[in-house]
Each structure stands twice: as C-alpha cells, then as structure tokens.
Amino acid sequence: MTTASHAPVSLSTCPPTVAVLGATGAVGRELVLLLEQRDFSLDSLKLLASPRSAGTRLPFRGETLTVEAVSEETLAGVDLVLASAGGSVSRRWAPVMGTHGTLLIDNSSAFRLDPCVPLVVPEVNLDTASRHQGIVANPNCTTILLLLALAPLRRLAPLRRVVVSTYQSASGAGAQAMAELKTTSRDVLHDRPPRNRVLPYSLAFNLFLHNSPLAENGYCEEELKMLRESRKILAQPDLRLSATCVRVPVLRAHAEAVNIEFDRPVPVDDARRALAQAPGVTLMDDHADNRFPMPSDVTGKDAVAVGRIRQDLSHPNGLELWLCGDQIRKGAALNAVQIAEAMVRHGWLKPPSPRQLDQDAPVLQP
Amino acid sequence: MTTASHAPVSLSTCPPTVAVLGATGAVGRELVLLLEQRDFSLDSLKLLASPRSAGTRLPFRGETLTVEAVSEETLAGVDLVLASAGGSVSRRWAPVMGTHGTLLIDNSSAFRLDPCVPLVVPEVNLDTASRHQGIVANPNCTTILLLLALAPLRRLAPLRRVVVSTYQSASGAGAQAMAELKTTSRDVLHDRPPRNRVLPYSLAFNLFLHNSPLAENGYCEEELKMLRESRKILAQPDLRLSATCVRVPVLRAHAEAVNIEFDRPVPVDDARRALAQAPGVTLMDDHADNRFPMPSDVTGKDAVAVGRIRQDLSHPNGLELWLCGDQIRKGAALNAVQIAEAMVRHGWLKPPSPRQLDQDAPVLQP
C-alpha cells in the first residue's frame, strides 16, 4: 500500500457534496440515517432514485429533502455517490460519474469482482481502497458479516476451508420483502393463504434456499458471491469455501453458522481472545448462561455479534462459530458509510492518478 | 441378525392392546392420528398422560377417547406403549412396563444411547429392532431426517465426515411453543413487545441456537444427539459429525443444510439416483426451476424432501445437500408408528428371550 503518492486533499475545510442513489430503498434510507447519525461531514446531500420514486420526501438533519430522479444533471457537481439501487442502475450511471470525477461507493454486485475495483470491508482491507479508479465496491451482506469473524482468526493460523450456512433475513430482498413477510404472516395467523408477490414463495413461518440464479455447478449466485468476494477481500485466491444460503422469516438481521478449517489447530481461547479484540465485532459467547447472538440482539446495531466458538468435533484443525449482524447496517449501509468516512479522512476521494482511470477502467463501460 | 429364533406371534388374529403415553402433546396427538390414518391393527387404544392432562377427550376412529392418568393400573394389560412424554416420564414407567412384558417404543432421549436398546429408523436399521429387550428408542427428529439422506448415500461410498446446520421449527419444543410462536408473532405485528414463557426467547421474526444444555466442549445436547445417535444407527462409531442446531420461526417442519465428506469422490448424478430410489425420501431437486424443498412442502407429509445436491466446491470428496421433513411426523410420531408396524408385522413385540430382559436390562432401573 502506497498512500504517500496521493495528493492529500484537506477535506476538513472542503467537505464533499454527497448523493445517495437509491435513496428510497431499505439500504438507501439507512444510508441517509447513518450520514445523519454519524455526523458525516458533507457540503450538501442529494437524494437520487428512479423517476418513479422522485418526489418522495425524506428527513435529514432536521430538514426535509426531496428525492430527485437520477440524471446527468442531478449527478453534476457531486463528489461522492453512495449507491444502492441495483447492479443495472450502477452500471448505467458509473460512466457519467467517471466523467465528472465522482467517486462511486457501490453497494450492488456490478463491479465487485472487477480487478480494477477495490472490494472493501474497512476492518479487513481498507488499504486497498486507496488504489481505486473511481469506484469502490461494497461486498455482499453475508460476505461482510463472515469476514469480520474470519479476518481476526486468520491472523492466528492460515485459513484452509470454510463451510457456512446462512440464515438470511427478508431485508436482503429489500423493503418490499420485509413488508411482505409481515403481510403474509398476518395471512397465516388469520388462516388465510399467504399471498406473496415480491418473494418467490411465502416466507411466513417458512424458509427457502436463496433464490438467486443457479450456476451450472448447482450453487446459487449468493453462495458464489461469498466464495469469490471472500477470496478477493482476503487476497487468498486458494481459499476453499462452500456456502448454503437460506432465506428465513426474520426481518433485518442475518445469522451464519460457520465451520472453519485452519492449517493447524487453533485453541478456542485464542480464537475467543482474537474476536474479543477485533474491530466491528462484539463477542457474545456466554457458555455459562447458554446465551449467544440472536437477530434480535443485533437489529439496529453496528457490530457483528459472534459466539458459540467451539473446537470442531469432526476435524482437529477446525473451529465452529455462530454470528449475527444487521443486514441493512453492517451488511450494507454502514459498511459503505465507513468506507466513505475513511476515504474522506485519508484524502482518497479522488483516484491516485486520473490517467489510470481512463486507461485501465473497462469496468466503467456499461 | 437372527430373526429365525423368534417365536412368530400371529398378530393378525391377535392384535395388540396399544397405549399412547403423552397423548395430549404435539407428538402424542400425531401418534393417535397416525394410528387412525394408517389403520394400525389394534385390539384397543388407551390414551395416557400426566394426571394434569387426564380427562382430555380426543377423537379416534369415530369415537371419543378420554385421556387417563398413567399408573400401574392403566398400564396393565397393554402390549405396546408409544411414549412421547419426556425422558423422566419414560424412565419412571419403563420398569412397570418391563414387569408387564409391555414393549415400549420411546420417543424420549432416555434410553437412546443404551447399548441394550435398539435405536431405530426403519428405513435404515430395522433389523436391530428384533433384538430388543422391552424397549426400542425413536431417534431425535434431526437425526432421523438426516439419516434418511445419509443412509442411501453411504452405499455409494463410506462416510467420513458430516457438517450440518439445522433450521428447526417450534414444534420440536412442543405444542405450547408452536402456540407461542403465533402469539409472539401477533405481538410483533401489533408493535407490542413479544411475551415468551415457553421458549427462552421470543422466536417471532427471530431465531436462536438450540437452548439444550451445553456440554463442556461447547456443543449443546441437541448437537451431540445428532453425532451419537447417527453413529449408533449407522453402526459407524468413527463417523465424524459436527452440528449447529438452530431454532427458527417455522411451525412444524425442520430443514438441514448438510455437507458430506466421503472417502472418495461421489458423482452428483449417482447421489441423485440413490436418493430418488431411497425409501422415505422424495427427491425435489429441480435446478431448471430453482425449486427445492421448503418446510411448507413437507408439512403433514411422510417423506423427507431432499434437493440442491451439488459437488462441494471446497472438497473433492464432498457433496452438499438440503433437506426438509415434518418434525412431528417423520421426525417423531411417524417413525415410531413405522417401528411399531414393522414389529407387529415381524412378530417382534415380545423380546427374543425374556431371560435377557431380566438379566441384561439395567436401563429398566430408573
């Protein structure tokens, strides 16, 4: 990492103009809330969305902002865009931001695996963000939560293999899916057949394998994201990881059961100590009271809660653990805002060399 | 297995007197329902429960039966008891049944690991039931569902290691827990704090690690049951298995994400073919339509649904699969009734040698 070559921009005297793209979605609203709660230093905030959502009014720092339709005009003059409007929207507008010199911190999967785009969990690989070429990608929710636990542990011993099963809340499918979980639950409680339109099946008192498209190997996209994004963020292309991703009837926090194989035995106490000191992690590992993380513990919370750390009975080099994290917060919006905060703090908003942006960023072509 | 030594009892002309012990519980009611639905040949049916539940009236074959308090008197003359009233009740009354020569098919965990007690999944190890000494144990729900998938696969190659994460419904904690999941869900939908009394935490739009007592190694009892019972049923004491058991807000069907390591590679197509032909299994593995088992598919159904069978990306000898089964039905009551049916069919109701029962059954001492 060579940050010395960056022209440090003194942004404390020149705060950026910020836009949230996809401001009316579940993650978009949380982005706006976090910019307010964390007192993010900005010159002005624009709320952008599709023309369909334009006109929506949202509160910010005691004022009411009106959502505008995203366009070349509304993007002009913006220094930093926090986007959570889906991959196609990010692909559509990234080239415009590129010509404006606007930094895009993108919550979609559009650019995550592009070698020119840093994929960042600030607690794990913030340094890579300094080498951006106009885009920094926010990983998938399940990946972020998993890596907050894996990163401190792999300092104890190299990781060999991870087998993970997820318990993913409705929020990962958006605000409408959260609302549908409530309406279909009401249906079931009133002995009516549940009517689902947003999710492929009713999630009320039910669960199903993540319904993202299947690859030929039988894994769904969500599962392959966990593999590929983890490899990129940990800079460990040989990491072996197999995931089973499941949607469960929980509103906004995810859980994961994680089986980790190291290249040598890792004592449980060492793992516990490493996680207790890890940034972004709350150790909740109370074996005496049989009390471990639940979605209800972490809803609205920043940290990922980790517990039930135990020696894997089935492998001498294995550990088992369980974690929960707020999908909308650390799984999406908070991680993006933390990236933005760090980039402002380090003066990394502008790419290290604009020349690189022009020559090496095929990703900016939609 | 030597069934030839049994004196075959022609039970078609002499059907047994049957009692359901714990008849008012979720599993007890299902036992009564299954005896009716499956036209179980019996001389008469007694419904037994704690004195607290005595007097409850339940329908059976067009009549209404009254639940009686379990006692030496009410147990007298019963040939076969199907018990689902908890370990302490089974321990209390098993010696009485022993002196009466009554066969106990026990759904509790009291005798499952006793070397004198067969632990039976009829599709997997029915032959062991012939060697009973008055008690046959029904395995834990999660174990039964898992083994219906593992047993046909291990005919393809020896099993080495299993890593499993469960998604267990409220029914596993009893009828009151199912009712509480509904009342607490109503609380949340009405913005009231959920009030839980049966479960340790509110399960409404929430989930938590199985709250059975923890062993010193950090695993809970439910997880260790899966290990120990699987080893016993498969007669494979070296099987390595690590489980994470999780209670989810689903009413009565469990799901499991299963990672299986064999001692050599097993082609996915071979696994699919073996499971398609396996008794008690429905293959639901529609990759073209991205359609795999859900709890709502199997609620009230006999078979365990298995799907999303895929080569484990993280191990050359690994397969991943997903399964769902009705916890009350195949996970408990149906398995017990299937054991009973087979034992009547084979004339195994009385132990092969009463002498053995007296001398070698310390388990019958409470």
UniProtKB/TrEMBL annotation, chains A, B:
Pathway the protein takes part in: Amino-acid biosynthesis; L-lysine biosynthesis via DAP pathway; (S)-tetrahydrodipicolinate from L-aspartate: step 2/4; Amino-acid biosynthesis; L-threonine biosynthesis; L-threonine from L-aspartate: step 2/5; Amino-acid biosynthesis; L-methionine biosynthesis via de novo pathway; L-homoserine from L-aspartate: step 2/3
Record's keyword annotation contains Amino-acid biosynthesis: yes
Residues engaged in binding NADP(+): T24, G25, A26, V27, R52, S53, S171, G172, Q327
Biological process per Gene Ontology, one example term: isoleucine biosynthetic process
Enzyme's top EC category: oxidoreductase
InterPro entries: Asp_semialdehyde_DH (IPR012080), Asp_semialdehyde_DH_beta (IPR005986), NAD(P)-bd_dom_sf (IPR036291), Semialdehyde_DH_NAD-bd (IPR000534), Semialdhyde_DH_dimer_dom (IPR012280)
Active site (catalytic residues): C141, H254
Molecular functions (GO terms): aspartate-semialdehyde dehydrogenase activity; NAD binding; NADP binding; protein dimerization activity
UniProt entry keywords in alphabetical sequence: Amino-acid biosynthesis, Diaminopimelate biosynthesis, Lysine biosynthesis, Methionine biosynthesis, NADP, Oxidoreductase, Threonine biosynthesis
Positions of substrate binding: Q168, E221, R247
EC nos: 1.2.1.11
Catalysed reaction, written as an equation: L-aspartate 4-semialdehyde + phosphate + NADP(+) = 4-phospho-L-aspartate + NADPH + H(+)
Annotated family: Belongs to the aspartate-semialdehyde dehydrogenase family.
Subunit structure of this chain's protein: Homodimer.
HAMAP family reported in the protein's UniProt record: ASADH
Job of this protein: Catalyzes the NADPH-dependent formation of L-aspartate-semialdehyde (L-ASA) by the reductive dephosphorylation of L-aspartyl-4-phosphate.
Protein name listed in UniProt: Aspartate-semialdehyde dehydrogenase
Organism: Candidatus Synechococcus spongiarum LMB bulk15M
Lineage, uppermost ranks: Bacteria, Bacillati, Cyanobacteriota, Cyanophyceae, Synechococcales
